[in-house]
Write a structure and sequence with these properties.
Layout (H helix, E strand, L loop, with lengths): L17 E5 L6 H10 L6 E4 L14 H18 L3 E7 L3 H6 L5 H22 L4 E9 L5 E5 L4
Parallel strand pairs: 1-2, 1-3, 3-4
Antiparallel strand pairs: 4-5
């Protein structure tokens, strides 16, 4: 069978040591990968789903989504030897807007921050050997994606 396309990148047999969990909103994909590269992760596993880390929190996701997301993350961490997890949320997330129609934009950001922290706590409890970092992406005045570190409480 002839290949329709051959990438410039060579296949790397070893798994990356980092997992990024973020929303599937393609407007942020390149910026997320740029962030991960800038913090020392040239390659990464990804879990990109609507809402991203929201799916680790039962007050935001439904039970089926929560269970599927936690199962997939556990598999990747254990099966691929993941040592670093980066959880990212972004402003203007359609998943959050659809699940919280009465909330103002800044109130949604506060909900996202709470969900990020909750997801971080789940990782720390379920897989304490993994380094977890939390970020929220906002659009700055220059129209660039700016990632802000979210402190765990």
């Amino acid at each position: 069978m002839a290949a329709a396309y051959t990438s410039k990148e060579k296949f790397e047999a070893s798994h990356p040591d980092a997992l990024a969990v973020y929303c599937s909103d393609g407007r942020f994909t390149d910026a997320v990968e740029e962030l991960l590269h800038s913090i020392g992760h040239p390659r990464l596993d990804t879990m990109t789903l609507p809402g991203g880390p929201a799916l680790f929190e039962l007050t935001t996701a439904d039970f089926a989504g929560l269970e599927a997301t936690r199962t997939a993350a556990s598999f990747l961490v254990k099966g691929h030897g993941i040592e670093h997890v980066v959880l990212l949320a972004h402003e203007g997330c359609g998943y959050y807007r659809s699940r919280n129609p009465g909330l103002e934009a800044e109130d949604i950001i506060q909900k996202q921050l709470a969900d990020l922290r909750s997801a971080g706590r789940w990782f720390h409890g379920a897989m304490p050997q993994v380094d977890v970092r939390l970020y929220i992406a906002r659009i700055n005045k220059a129209g660039r994606v700016a990632f802000h570190v979210v402190e765990e409480r």
